[in-house]
Write a structure and sequence with these properties.
By secondary structure, the protein is mainly beta. The chain contains no helices and eleven strands.
């Protein structure tokens, strides 16, 4: 059983860089075929795909967030990390990590609030 768990950064101040780590257990992030995604849901809005790192290590990003987003991985820890720079209150959301392409496994989500 694959399990994903997001870290909990809690409150982030405007203009700071948000850093979130997803720890994967029960499966390797280097296993062929799978991609490892970051998705968020602002209050009262739908899900927004932010980006992903594939099993090969290649990355892809949402065009609307690409200038502020970086996704990396640590294969020795079976983790992948999202960094979102220059955050504003509009980045307040529940952030999820999930396995693609079927999105069959998700983390429980972590609430990130951007506020001074």
């Amino acid at each position: 059983q694959v399990q994903l768990q997001e870290s909990d950064p809690g409150l982030v101040k405007p203009s700071q860089t948000l850093s979130l780590t997803c720890t994967v257990s029960g499966g390797s992030i280097t296993s062929n075929y799978y991609g490892w995604n970051w998705i968020r849901q602002p209050p009262g809005k739908g899900l927004e795909w932010m980006g992903a790192v594939r099993y090969s290590g290649s990355t892809s990003y949402s065009p609307s967030l690409k200038s502020r987003t970086s996704i990396s991985r640590d294969t020795s820890k079976n983790q992948f990390t999202l960094e979102l720079s220059t955050v504003t209150p509009e980045d307040t959301a529940v952030y999820y990590c999930a396995r693609g392409p079927e999105y069959d496994y998700w983390g429980q989500g972590t609430q990130v609030t951007v506020s001074s």
